[in-house]
Amino acid sequence: MAILNQQSLLAVKKRSPVVAVVLSLLFGSFGLFYASVFGGIVMTVVALLVGLLAYAFGSMLIFKIGVVAIGISCIIWSVIAVNNSNKGFFFAQFKWEIVFRRWLRILSAAMLLLAIGVLITLIINSIPSIKSLGISYLWGKVWDPVQNIYGAYPFLIGTLLTSFIALFISIPFSFAIAIYLGEYSTKGWLSNLLRNTVELIAAVPSIIYGFWGFFVLVPIIRSFEIKIHVLPYGLGIFASSLILAVMVIPYAASLGATLIRMVPAALKEGAYGLGATRFEVIRKVIMPYTRSGLFAGVLLSLGRALGETMAVTLLIGNTSAVPHSIFALGNTMASVIANEFTEADHTIYLSALIELGLILFLVTVVINYIGKRIITRFTRN
Amino acid sequence: MEIANQQKQSLPHTQLNMSGGREQDVLLKALLALVFGPIGLLFGSLSGGFIMIILEIIIAILTFTFGTLTTTFYGLALVQLVCTIWAIYATLNKYKTVEQRIKYRNTESILYKTSIVFLSFIVAVPLIIILLYIIRQGVTQVNWHFLTNVPKPVGETGGGILNALVGTLIIVAISAIIAIPVGMMAGIYLSENPKTRLAYWAGLCVDILQGVPSIVVGIVVYFWVVKPLGTFSAVSGSIALAIMMLPIVIRSTEETLKLLPPSLKEAALSLGVPYHRVIIKIIVPCGFAGILSGIVLSIARVVGETAPLLFTAFGNPYLSASIVKPMESLPHLIYTYATSPYDDWHDLAWGASFLLLVFVLVLNISTKLITKRWKVQL
C-alpha cells in the first residue's frame, strides 16, 4: 500500500474538492467524471436504470427520489474520490483487485442487512396492532375482522396442533430412514433408491401435496369420519397433519442419516467385540451418541412444519374458530395470512396479520438457530 | 473346555435360584398384557410393546376404514392375544440358558432390522401414489393446445396455461439473474474469509434466511416492492424468489469452495496473478460443478413456491410479458384453479401440476447428474 501511495502521489496531480463538488452539483453523474472516472460511469448507469424504472412504472415519485438520491451520492462520491486521489488511494490508481474484495464484503454484509431488514419490516408494520391490541392479542379467542376483534389464539393452537401431530407421525419413519441409511446400508442400490425417494419427497412442491390431498386424501378422511361418527368435513387439522407428516420426513431423516454415519467406528466395534447384537449396538451406542443430533433434525422438521403454507391452506378448512378436536376445521398462522392478507382493508387488520407473520418468523428463527447450533456442536466434536 | 463345562454346570444352579419367582413373574406379565394389551406388554418386553402399539394402530385404522366395528373388535382382540403370548415368551426367555438367550437376542436384532426396513421403505408408498395420481390426471391434459393457449372464461371448454408457463419462466429467470451473482459473491467471501466477524454474522443471517417461512418472505417483499410501486408486479415476485434462492446458492458455493485445496490458490497467487483473477479463473472453475448443482437445486426449490407469489406476482388470467404488471405462474395457477368450483379448471390445474412436477424432477435429476459427472459432494 505504501508503495502504491508514493507512486500515485508522483503520478497524479492534485484536484480541488471545491471544483469537484460544484461540478457534480451542477451536472450530477457527468460532473463526477472530474473526480473519478469509475464513479462517473457507475453513477451514469445507475441514473439510467432509475430513469428507466420510473418510466416503466410511470411514477413521478420514483423519478424525484431517484434524482435527489443520485445527486447526493454523486456529491459524496466526488468529495471522497478527490480526497482519496489527493492521498493517492484507490480511485487514483484504479485497482480491480480491491474493488473485487470490497464487493465480496459488501454482498456478504447485504445478507446481514437482508435478515435485519426482514425483522425490522415486520416489526414496523405490526406496530399498529401491537399498540392497539397489546399482549392480550396472543390469547384472544375471537378473530372477527368485521367487528374489529382480533385474537391470535385459534391460529396459535391450529399451528401447534398440526405441526406436532405431523411431527409425531413422521418421527418413527424419519428415524427409521436415518438408521437404515446411516447404519444398516450406507451404500448400494437399495439405499440409493431410498435416498433418492427421500430427496424426491422434499422436492415435490407443497402446492402439489395440497392439491392432491384436497382431491384424494380428503374424501378418504371424510368416509373415515363418517365411520367414527364425527362431522364429516374431510378437511381439517387431521388432513393437514397427515400431509405435513409426509412433507417433513426428509428433513429429520437426511440429517439423522448423516449424523449416524459419523458415529466413530471404534465405539461400535468395541460394542460388537463385547458380543452385542446389532440391535443392541444401535440402542446402546448409536442412539445415545447421536441423541442431540437427532433432536436437531426433529427441530428442523418442526421449523418446516410451522412455516408450511400452501398444503395446509388447501386442507385445513380455513375457519377462524378454536379447534375442538383433531377432526375440526381450523387455521394456522401461515394459512390465515395467505387467505386474508390481500383482503385486509384497514390498518389494524393488516397489521394484526403481519404480527402473526412476525411471531411465525421469530419462532422459526429460534427453532432453526437452536437446531443449527446443536448440529455445529455435534459435527465439531 | 473346562470353563465351558463349569459354566454349563453352574447354569442349572442359577436357574434354580431364579426359578422361585418364575411362575409368578410369567403370570404377572401375561395378565398385564392380557388386560392392557400392548401397553402391558411394555413391562414384559419393551421392543415388543412398541412394535405391538404400532401394529395395533395400523390394524385399528385399517379395520375402521375398510371394515365394520366387529372386525375392529376381532382385530384388537387378536392383538391382545398376540401380546399375551409375546409377554409369556419374553418372560420365559429371561429364565433361559445362555444359548437360548443368544438366540433370543439374535431374533430380536433381526426383528428390529425388519421393522426398520419396513418403516423406511413404506415412506415411498405415499410418494408413489401422489406421483402416479398426478401423472394419470395430468398427462391426458397436456397437448399442444394446452401449452399454447391462455385459459378460457368459465363455461367455455378448452384453454391452456400459456400465461402461467411464460410467467413462471420469466419470474424464475429474473430471480436467478438476481440471486446467482449475489449468492456466488457472498459464498466466495464466506469460504475465503471464514474467520472474520463479518463472515460469522453473515453466515448466521444466511441460516436465518434459510429458515424464514416462505409466506413471511412474501409479506416483506410486499412492503419493500409492491407497496412503493403501487402495483403487484412480476419483478416483486422475482425478488421474493431470489431471497429464497440466496441461502442455497451461498451455502453450496461456500461448501464447494471450502473443499478445494489451498495449494491451488497459493500457486496462482505466487505467480503474481491478481486476487480477482485467481477467484474468477481458478477457484470458481474448479468448484464449478458444485456451484452449478447448488444453483439448479435452488431453482428447483423456488419453481414450485406459491406462498411468496401470493402478494407479489399475484396472478393474471391473460398473457403478459411486462415485468411491472401482475403475472401468472404455474404454482399460483394451480392454487387458484384447485380452489375454484369448476371441473374444467380442475383439469387445467392437474395439467399444470404435471408440468410443474416434470420441471422439478428434471431440475433435480440434472443436479444429480452434475454432481455425479464431476464427482462433487454437496
> How would you spell out the order of helices and strands of chain B?
HHHHHHHHHHHHHHHHHH
Percentage of residues in DSSP E strands of chain B? under 5%
In percent, how much strand structure appears in the residues of chain A? under 5%
Radius of gyration of chain A: 29 Å
What is the helix content of chain A? over 70%
Order of helices and strands of chain A: HHHHHHHHHHHHHHH
Largest sheet of chain A: none
The helix-and-strand class of chain B reads mainly alpha
Which regions of chain B contain 5 or more consecutive residues with pLDDT less than 50?
A: 1-19
Computed structural class of chain A? mainly alpha
- H/I helix tally of chain B: 18
Descriptive report:
The complex is a heterodimer of chains A (381) and B (378). Chain A is an all-alpha fold and 381 residues long. Helix content of chain A is 77%, strand content 0%. Chain A has helices spanning 2-11, 17-27, 32-35, 37-57, 60-87, 96-133, 153-184, 189-203, 206-227, 237-261, 265-273, 278-307, 310-315, 333-340, 347-380. In chain A, helix 2 (17-27) packs antiparallel against helix 5 (60-87), helix 7 packs parallel to helix 10 (237-261) and helix 12 runs antiparallel to helix 15 (347-380). Mean pLDDT of chain A is 86; it is low at 1-12. The longest helix of chain B has 31 residues, at 162-192. Chain B is flat and about 80 Å long. The relative contact order of chain B is 0.09. The chains are: A mainly alpha (381), B mainly alpha (378).
In short:
Helix content of chain A is 77%, strand content 0%. By secondary structure, chain A is mainly alpha-helical. Chain B has 378 residues and is mainly α.
Keywords:
heterodimer; A: 381 residues; mainly alpha; 15 helices; flat; B: 378 residues; 0% strand; disordered N terminus
Q: What is the topological layout?
A:
The complex is a heterodimer of chains A (381) and B (378).
Chain A: H1 2-11, H2 17-27, H3 32-35, H4 37-57, H5 60-87, H6 96-133, H7 153-184, H8 189-203, H9 206-227, H10 237-261, H11 265-273, H12 278-307, H13 310-315, H14 333-340, H15 347-380
Chain B: H1 2-18, H2 22-36, H3 38-44, H4 46-66, H5 69-94, H6 98-122, H7 124-139, H8 144-148, H9 162-192, H10 197-211, H11 214-229, H12 234-259, H13 262-270, H14 275-286, H15 288-303, H16 307-310, H17 330-338, H18 343-373
